[in-house]
Amino acid sequence: MLSKYRWWRDAVIYQVYVRSFLDSTGDGVGDLAGVRAGLPYLKKLGVDGIWLSPFYPSPQHDHGYDVADYRDVDPLFGDLAEFDLLMAAARRLGVKVLLDIVPNHCSSEHPAFRAALDAAPGSAARARFHFADGRGPEGAEPPNNWHAMFGGPAWTRVDDGQWYLHMFTPEQPDWNWRDPEVAADFESTLRFWLDRGVDGFRIDVAAGLFKHPDLPDSDDPEADARTRDSVNPLAWNQPEVHDVWRRWRAVCEEYTARDGRERLLVGEVSVPTAREHALYVRPDELHQAFFFDLLGAPWDADAFRKVISEAMQDIAGTGSTVTWVLNNHDQVRTVTRYGEPATEGSGLGAARARAAALLMLALPGAAYIYQGEELGLPEVVDLPDDVLTDPIFRRTGNRARIRDGCRVPLPWSGQASPFGFTSGVEGAKPWLPQPSYFAEYATDRALADTRSFWHLYRDGLQLRASLPQLGEGELRWLDSAPGVLAFTRGDGVVCAVNFGTAPAPAPVSGSPLLSSGPCPAGVLPGSTAAWWIGDL
Ligand code: GLC
């Protein structure tokens, strides 16, 4: 049965990558006080809520996705008192707050893992993780042939000869979710933050947690490392994980029953098909799961149409809505992905990224925006090797330069780095260097220029909030020229995107309500999307 509180069904959430958002202390790393200072900017943009990337105590081997204490704030980012101030400010502005929870693995510095290392093989402390004896003479080979997502074997040997499993880096041991204490401890963590007022959680690696109980060899051990997706069917997407999401949903419903505020669980779910994806958003499981196929689709009308149709068919059938995403902290930014040199801001990639944004905001369901997307930031592709911090780089022998280029700190103002990102300390340097061309993208310039990406997102969000058709209105495809996608939402709202470069006839004769680029009446120029109100 659908709950009557359903704010999340078509919500737009802004992902704050805390260390790159805004630095209030001048140490070059963004922090919670910086997020609080940036809230009015986000309110003005018009998002419903924010998702905060992990800020918990952590050795930062994977920028906080290696959690040493799930119920505190790393001094790098502030403290619990600052967190409470942020919550209070967000509540005053009516901005919801989601935290990032990392249940598949913790940090090798987590006290439970330290205790497991100190304990004997076969002990209760070791049972909270996946410790196993090796194979071959003297157990010198790993217990199975699995590879870690970020390269290298998924097992590391400890002093007494046993091995432990880590599907990411060796500093991120995987929890054993078949141990009931692990499940109980995570429920306490949920309650800890729900009691502090949060509106929900983004769940890291939500198709993870359980592994095949026998930990057998995989037929294709390199699949995960090769695809950067959790595709080893023995290590991911085990049926037991759904019980966890049912229990977490029940915890959320318990809080909703107390105060009427519906909490949101959104999962990072990477599974092979839309049909399997849909299982995660059944009515008693997660509210949302990121549908990454849109992000993975090439700039092509047929590819986009296929992805959208499959999502609508399989996910909408659960009673949930689709959760669209084009960018996040793990992916090359759209402006660059859709084909443009990183140092030019006004070419094809930017035009396509703007069109994709209007398309995403016109689709039924929820949408997530990654910080800097609203500024049209390109990927920083020329970072020198010695500043790269993504563990994937190190673990692939300095080959895969994947995730630093989208994590460069945001430009806020001014003509030179740090572009207002750090404050207070003379000569403070952002933790990743900002290129000089970031000056063009600074938020103050974006706000002052009505042709900016920022205004496109702000106008799109405003219209989305005021047109009820864009909420629960049905999507119906319209016939359109090759290379053009056109659809209606409910009564009277039409959206069309021209994926080609030549102009096409517009589906509606009048002027558009909003368009991603210049759009004269009756025409839809190449690499452009537009919204109209009108009779067909
Ligand atoms: C998720 C996060 C990514 C992190 C990984 C391991 O994919 O988005 O940033 O490295 O999980 O926690």
TrEMBL record:
Molecular function via GO: alpha-amylase activity
Keywords annotated in UniProt: Hydrolase
InterPro entries: GH, GH13_cat_dom, O16G_dom_2
A Gene Ontology BP annotation from the UniProt entry: oligosaccharide catabolic process
TM ranges: none
Coiled coil residues, start to end: none
Top-level division of the source organism's lineage: Bacteria
Glycosyl hydrolase family 13 catalytic domain mapped to chain residues: 15-403
Family per record: Belongs to the glycosyl hydrolase 13 family.
UniProt name for this protein: Glycoside hydrolase family 13 protein
Lineage of source species: Bacteria, Bacillati, Actinomycetota, Actinomycetes, Kitasatosporales
